[in-house]
């Protein structure tokens, strides 16, 4: 049985459509309800929180996973990225009040100690370290846009898709950090042991990749 870990939440539907387009069974998955393990004959799906998805592959309970590149960048698991599915597209950005723009792009010393609210502390730390700036990271689990509104932070590092949330909270994009999309990943062990089953899926997503690295 091939086991795939999938993220719950907003990309679940796109992930399901993608699996169906790859020819994998999704009949029971479509009606999963509150079930977290769904068996579809030779395929088993595990439904997990997006940030936890890489863990299931890392610990060997799942052979494969669909996971956002934002999550991979934040959690840095030792997994093989087999394909960019092109789904779940959004962007990681630094955003803040428009007035911060001049200071943000001014001399580095002007943003030393900046307070950055985010669900992605490692990515935020890396982004500012690259600019040679030490900042104060405020780790939140959601509704990140609240932080600058309440003066809990100066800016945020978060995901933007349509821009509606930023606009509704009077924030603007200050810098692009990275584009995000849903990736197909596997552990090295699974990719080697189960390549007969995994290979055809990878070829469908990425016809130029025929062998496991
Ligand atoms: N507009 C978007 N906003 C947030 N995440 C998006 C968006 N578009 C695609 N994604 C992908 O979906 C994943 C997050 O999904 P979701 O927002 O449901 O997770 P979550 O907020 O961690 O979970 P929960 O809502 O259950 O707390 C991201 O890791 C990203 O890869
Ligand atoms: O650009 P938009 O299309 O408005 O989407 C971006 C918003 O979506 C995400 O939040 P989500 O809905 O996942 O809720 P959260 O704040 O609980 O993470 C993200 O953190 C932004 O707040």
UniProtKB/TrEMBL annotation:
The keyword Cytoplasm applies. CDD domains: PBP2_HisGs (cd13595). Its EC number is 2.4.2.17. It catalyses: 1-(5-phospho-beta-D-ribosyl)-ATP + diphosphate = 5-phospho-alpha-D-ribose 1-diphosphate + ATP. Pathway: Amino-acid biosynthesis; L-histidine biosynthesis; L-histidine from 5-phospho-alpha-D-ribose 1-diphosphate: step 1/9. Residues 49-206 form the ATP phosphoribosyltransferase catalytic domain. One of its GO terms (molecular function) is ATP phosphoribosyltransferase activity. GO terms for biological process: L-histidine biosynthetic process. Keywords: Amino-acid biosynthesis, ATP-binding, Cytoplasm, Glycosyltransferase, Histidine biosynthesis, Nucleotide-binding, Transferase. One of its GO terms (cellular component) is cytoplasm. It is found in: Cytoplasm. NCBIfam families: hisG. Lacks the C-terminal regulatory region which is replaced by HisZ. Heteromultimer composed of HisG and HisZ subunits. Catalyzes the condensation of ATP and 5-phosphoribose 1-diphosphate to form N'-(5'-phosphoribosyl)-ATP (PR-ATP). Has a crucial role in the pathway because the rate of histidine biosynthesis seems to be controlled primarily by regulation of HisG enzymatic activity. Belongs to the ATP phosphoribosyltransferase family. Short subfamily. This is ATP phosphoribosyltransferase. It comes from Aminithiophilus ramosus. The gene is hisG.
